[in-house]
Each structure stands twice: as structure tokens, then as C-alpha cells.
Design a protein that fits this description.
Keywords: Membrane, Transmembrane, Transmembrane helix. About 85% of the residues lie in helices and about 0% in strands. The chain is mainly α and about 60 residues long.
Length: about 60
Amino acid sequence: MLKLLDVICNLLAILAGTYLVAIMFGIVFQATARSFNHSGSSHIFTFSEYGLLYIVMAASPGLSG
């Protein structure tokens, strides 16, 4: 049972890291689109806001052990 919990914690940490990288690329895309006078996507801000919450919640079990 403990090994399964370790695997789940590792997968959640990988998910949090992947989400963080996706947020970074989204922000870079939004800034680049604005510099070329394109509107880009307004969903990137919502993606980033909720992403920061999900990153904290997904990575926190790995910090306890």
C-alpha cells in the first residue's frame, strides 16, 4: 500500500511540474502575441490562475515524506 502511495505522489509531482511548464509557455505565447498586435487567447490567464492552485495541491503530498 505504501508503494502505491509513493507512485501516486510521484505522478502528482510530475503532473505539477508539467502544468508549471505549460503555464510558462502559455505566458510566453501571450506576451509574444501581444507584441505582434494579436489578441492571443484570453483563456491563458484562467489557465494560469487555476494552474497555480492545482500545482500546490498536486505537489504538496510529496513534501511531507
